[in-house]
Amino acid sequence: MGITRRNVLFSSFGATLAGLAARRGEAKETRSALRHARRAGGRTNVVTPNGATLPYRMVGGVKEFHLTAEPVKREFVDGFQVNCWGYNGMTPGPTIEAFEGDRVRILVTNHLPEGTSIHWHGVILPNGMDGVSGLTQPKIAPGETFAYEFTLKQNGTLMYHPHFDEMVQIALGMHGFFVIHPRDAGTRRVDRDFAIFLNEWFIKPGASTPDPTVMLDFNVFTFNSRVFPGTEPLLVRTGDRVRIRIANLTMDSHPIHIHGHKFYVTGTDAGPIQESAWIPENTVNVPVGSTRDIELVADNPGDWAFHCHKSHHVMNQMGHGLPNLLGIDAANTQARLNTLAPGTMIMGPTGMGEMAEMQGMMPMPRNSITMRGGEGPYGPIDMGGMFTIVKIRDDMDYTRDPGWYSQGPRARRVE
Ligand SMILES: [Cu+2]
């Protein structure tokens, strides 16, 4: 099939017009995408918490999408602004949804100060569409638009990310989901379908720009480029079949864990796993450069923690690189410290939970986050970072956070 690679140069005037037209068409396109999904077998649209789905338009039988690579300001949680790079004003980039068999054209406009490209991770496509700068195409220079076009021959949870200056561009937030639904979902229908992109960053307390040269010692860990309590809860009705797609392009593997339920690992970035091979788990390790789909039946109402199980990955910025004070005689140390630095307060001799509680009283650098996560119904929740809550209710309205779960009568604390 004669696929031509097109390299289109937009004038800035033309790009502005295209942007305005895209925004006007957005609501209409989203509606048509919903209609399309219903026609194609009622498959549930993917929900990207704190994110969005990329609209498309039909152009001569081809689904045409438009991604703009650009610098993005992202609020990871109230009061914590980070200078990221992403697509269409967000990180992760908007989720692309399409169906097996679709012909897609994805226009990629570069508004970064350096070159870029997009690799369609896991997608089986002609070599010239693979997006590896230098190997299969020249880099997309600033101001240029490149058209990727191919037919989708598979289904599954795939990704997109740059293959130019990967260390900087991926670390600054340039990645997104490419979800390809099966033509015929058969019995694989789910009621709720979520997508969570993992990322880790090093952002010096008080700074706004992540340091992409850091290799191992990260201090901010995000779900869809947000930290708890800035992560949107996953809203689910009791009895729903729930799929959660998790993607990882960081420098670490992330064991993602759910409370109150078991799940099955049902897919990878190479596609669905046949049901006879599904593995029951409470935690799924998501390796670097991979996606994992998990499915569960939400039969247990409540507010259930969903988080990375590496304990440093559910801590926020302030909790790393501190002196180890565990087991120290606090009174003695405090007295000696005060002779050197009057008014200084030592913290954390009985553990870090106490330290989290004291942080409200301590001055914080501008534009930084406390180690503590957020306020819960019974006090502070010590976890931040890669943490969110699956809220399961009998009468869940998917569009509204129902607040905290009411525990009802239960065992009391023994005095
Ligand atoms: Cu982790």
Q: What are the low-pLDDT stretches, counting only 5+ consecutive residues below 50? A: 1-42
Q: Whole-number average pLDDT?
A: 85
Order of helices and strands: EHEEEEEEEEHEEEEEEEEEEEEHHEEE
Shape annotation:
globular
Share in β-strands: 25-35%
**Fourth CATH level, the homologous superfamily of one domain:** Cupredoxins -  blue copper proteins
CATH architecture of one domain: Sandwich
Q: Give the class from helix and strand content and strand pairing.
A: mainly beta
Q: Name the CATH class of one domain.
A: Mainly Beta
**Ligands bound here?**
copper (II) ion
How is the biggest beta sheet arranged? 7 strands, mixed
Number of helices: 4
**CATH topology-level name of one domain:** Immunoglobulin-like
DSSP, total strands: 24
Helix content: 10-25%
How far do the termini sit from each other?
A: 76 Å
Radius of gyration: 23 Å
State the main characteristics.
415 residues, mainly beta, Immunoglobulin-like, seven-stranded mixed β-sheet, six-stranded mixed β-sheet, globular, binds copper (II) ion
Topology overview:
Blueprint: E1 6-9, H1 12-39, E2 57-59, E3 62-77, E4 80-87, E5 96-99, E6 103-110, E7 119-121, E8 144-151, E9 156-161, H2 166-171, E10 176-181, E11 192-201, E12 220-223, E13 234-237, E14 241-248, E15 254-258, E16 263-268, E17 271-272, E18 279-281, E19 283-286, E20 290-297, E21 302-308, H3 330-340, H4 352-358, E22 374-376, E23 379-381, E24 387-393
Parallel strand pairs: 3-6, 5-10, 11-14, 13-24
Antiparallel strand pairs: 1-8, 2-3, 3-4, 6-8, 7-9, 9-10, 11-12, 14-20, 15-19, 15-21, 16-17, 16-18, 16-20, 21-24, 22-23
Bound molecules: copper (II) ion.
